[in-house]
Amino acid sequence: METLQILKRQVVSLKETQSPRLYNKALEFGLVPGHKGYTRFIILSRSRSGSNLLRGLLNSHSQVVTFSEMFKNPNIIGWDISGYPNSGRVLDLFQKDTRLFIRKEVFKKFPKQIKAVGFKIFYYHAYGTELAPVWDYLKEDHRIHVIHLKRNNILKTHVSKKRAQITDNWINLTGERETAPKFKLDYEELLNDFTQTRAWEAEAEQFFKGHPKIEINYEQLVRDFAGEMTKIQAFLGLDYEQVFPQTHKQASKPLSATIENYLELKKRFADTPWEVFFTE
After folding, report:
1. Residues 210, 193: Cα–Cα separation, whole Å
2. Mean pLDDT of 24-53
3. 8 Å CB contact between 233 and 240
4. Which of 90, 84, 105, 94 has its CA nearest to residue 132?
5. 240 DSSP assignment
């Protein structure tokens, strides 16, 4: 008992940033005050649509914890925040009982100053794996707020993904100039990506019908992240704070200078719903 009291005094004076793992344990055992009355949310999107930008903006707010792609890989928990375990009992729970994992490890007790906790999830994550029950959990819990992040120009999404695959550089944290390779794109692959993305977006709207939702447009977020983040902060019930990007825009050249067969593709997509992507 005396040892527990000593530990409690040590932990109470400990800041969360000094030892996140110890602080989380202290919350779990009630040694520091915590609560579950925060807003629960997800960033729902697809790859290369600005989710890293949005997550960074949210995590620059003192009242928010936003995990990364939690359910992308059954072998790795996508915390992307230090102090959270990725092995042993927690990984076992993640793989064997996704619902319980979310309740106990994701939406658990947090420090009293935290007002919103969430994570990124893409339309296609977890399906066909043991993590698939995450979708039933999210659908059934109507407390979960949905930030639906979309990108208008899916051609730019596709180009961004292709460039990242070629360079193996998926995020720019330093602001250093990046290479921008040129490449050809396949018409059928593009057509499938355009139609699939719009289908995912429509299905997501139906799937989360009845949930608190806000739709955020990537292009508008880039143009006016302060204005868009003001709306998101209100949606999540946060006190207003000025927030800042934690990532940098990756290499960007005109589409016509990046896609070797741009003019050919522009001609083939003329007079289709997708011609609006080819404006150069």
Report:
1. 28
2. 89
3. yes
4. 94
5. P
